[in-house]
Amino acid sequence: MPDVFRERTEKEFRIPTEDELKTLSSQFKREALQAGFELAGIAEATAADGFDRFSEWLDAGHAAGMSYLHKHREARQHPRNIFPEVRSILMLGICYANIPTPPSRPTIGRVARYAQGPDYHDFLWDKLNTLLAKLQRILPGLQGRGVVDTAPLLERDFARRAGLGWFGKNTMLISKKRGSYLLLAALLLDAKLPSDVPHLQSHCGTCTACLDACPTDALLSPGTLDARKCISYHTIESRDTIPLNLRESIGDWLFGCDICQEVCPWNRKSDSFSLPHNPDLEVLDAQELVGLTQEEFRRRFRLTPLSRPKWEGLRRNALIVLGNTADNKVLPLLTQIFSEESGMLKETAEWAIKEINTRTCNARGASNKETSE
Ligand code: B12
Ligand code: SF4
Ligand code: SF4
């Protein structure tokens, strides 16, 4: 098919019929599903519905130290700021609902499900490029740009507009069919295609399981997350010392957090995953990680999401997991880190030592009390 779907040529060419456009939309979505995406929908490329909400969220300080969100604030207002010719957005979702292995030892840390595989950005970009090439064979002259996470697009906003799901009270985009263990991606296209029906209705009902389960009360109210309190933010994005009042609640989360999704009833049946899974990233021993050299860290995690907090950040997280084990067998290792390191790692090792000592003392006190009673 020729260039008929582009604005600049509409006057010169025959305007396509509604039916032709609908057929093309269905064909594009079918190709997306064949390319391995589980959800596909089309959204009109106009200003983002949630921009004001996003802006208020930034002004309230809820983005914590994610300065890139402030820096590209205005760009998120409209997708044309990423691709000036954009007229439609093909929104896509891919599942990663693999079932996690329960920790076998107290020093094993938990890794968020999405991160138990390769870096999803590279994986999805490859898929988007292959898909775009296929769509260009269907509609020669079509231009597009693939987006996964790093470009300033309010992805959940456009996913809802494309009919993929609704905004849960935990802020996740939830699909009725697939739950929320989904990663989103977008193909910004210069062709004007008929849009899908936006998913305006919420299916959370009276449920508040995610708000009740969040151990740090990071979900301030339905649909509002304060990253300053979120385990996911602190263990993935933050390069700083983790606030003292959150450390105990982090428990054994070594990287990311899935609690507000684990409790969601819409995830009970979701068990499909199309993202490659790497079992080596499923169970990581925090003891091993604190002693990792920079070179070992690079070799092991370079192509995975766990490279994001960097060498120091991942070891900081591992120290917190160890501090929460209440296992005094790890004290010699912590003492060694305390004497060899400086700054954030020294301080976190010191906290972990104190934490283990206090918890062991308390446990001893409690068992003495029981025997004397
Ligand atoms: C910054 C960021 C984070 C931050 C902040 C998260 C947050 N809730 O805001 C931190 C580091 C905490 C984080 C954590 C996680 N993230 Co994150 N994150 C992002 C990123 C880069 C931007 C999100 C953003 O702009 N947040 C600001 C808030 C205000 O925007 P929002 O959450 O998108 O909410 C919009 C809508 O909810 C809408 N809205 C809500 N109600 C209403 C009502 C009306 C009337 C309207 C008009 C709009 C509206 O308004 C908001 C603005 O548009 C996106 C990728 C992207 N480019 O969008 C991934 C993204 C949201 N993250 C993702 C994932 C997987 C995660 C984690 C699960 C990872 C983990 N296991 O640890 C957790 C989940 C925590 C949680 N409950 O959100 C996925 C989510 C997929 C999905 N199904 O929703 C995304 C989309 C990345 C991707 N490409 O797949 N993340
Ligand atoms: S990711 Fe964890 S800490 Fe963040 S809001 Fe969800 S449950 Fe709370
Ligand atoms: S746990 Fe309940 S309230 Fe939270 S997102 Fe899921 S359905 Fe909605």
From TrEMBL:
Q: Could you tell me which PROSITE patterns the record lists for this protein? A: 4FE4S_FER_1, 4FE4S_FER_2
Top-rank lineage group of the source organism: Bacteria
> Which Pfam families does its entry note?
Fer4_16 (PF13484), QueG_DUF1730 (PF08331)
**What are the residue boundaries of the 4Fe-4S ferredoxin-type domain, all occurrences included?**
195-224
Q: What is its EC number?
A: 1.17.99.6
Alphabetic keyword roster: 4Fe-4S, Cytoplasm, Iron, Iron-sulfur, Metal-binding, Oxidoreductase, Queuosine biosynthesis, tRNA processing
GO BP, one annotated term:
tRNA queuosine(34) biosynthetic process
**Keyword Metal-binding found:** yes
The molecular function GO annotations come to:
4 iron, 4 sulfur cluster binding; epoxyqueuosine reductase activity; metal ion binding
Q: Which InterPro entries match?
A: 4Fe4S_Fe-S-bd, 4Fe4S_Fe_S_CS, QueG, QueG_DUF1730
Under what name is this protein listed? tRNA epoxyqueuosine(34) reductase QueG
Which gene is this protein's source? queG
